[in-house]
Amino acid sequence: MTSTTSAPARTSAAVDLALVSAFAALAAVCSILPAINVSTFAPITLQTFGVLLAGAVLGARRGVLAILLWLALGAAGLPVFANGKSGLAVLAGPTSGYLVGFVVGVAIMGVVAEFLARRGQVSNPLALFAGGLLAVLVIHVLGIVGLHLRADLDWAAAATVDGAFWIGDLIKLAATAVVAAAVHRAFPWLLRRRAA
Ligand SMILES: O=C(O)CCCC[C@@H]1SC[C@@H]2NC(=O)N[C@@H]21
Q1: 0.90 surpassed by complex ipTM
Q2: pTM for the complete prediction?
Q3: What is the CA radius of gyration of the chain?
Q4: Which CATH architecture has domain 14-186?
Q5: β-bridge partners, 150
Q6: What digits encode the pLDDT tens for the residues 21-35?
Q7: Ligand 1 — pocket residues by CB below 6 A?
């Protein structure tokens, strides 16, 4: 007698919960890996990779939940922000614009991934990279706003601080696109919606 195991048609609530928790943990790990402190205001971290990957793999709704869970854990006192920081003060500090940008950015990356999935293109890294550029741009614009408002920098100085992050974040977006495309090739059901 032979038996076959087929891939699920779509995710279950339990799988969704596990995925959201796993990507919240990934965002935390990307935050606490040693950061490169290029200025006193915000460090170079792997956070953009963790955040964009959550959106690209999970889609908008679950991606946003994963990032909100990570932010909530950090706000509650777990040292899961850059340089091992934690607490509400970080959410109101110089990097607050980037943290808000992560929520908007993961939503944009998720919408892009869902759009590409409907067109059978979600395993195409170039398409994911091109769509993800908007998410990176929004993270940086909100980051500059945060630096201006919370680090007391004028707009030009805030943009200069942010400029140091662009090359690295484009590399992280490229890595996100390659990894997410491979994940969707291996698990083509990941972005299928559950029945209500
Ligand atoms: O305090 C935090 O945990 C957030 C730090 C934000 C760092 C930003 S994210 C976008 C840009 N790219 C980086 O590598 N660092 C900055």
Answers
A1: yes
A2: 0.94
A3: 17
A4: Orthogonal Bundle (1.10)
A5: none
A6: 999 999 999 999 988
A7: 31, 42, 44-45, 47-48, 81-82, 90, 95, 98-99, 139, 143, 165, 168-169
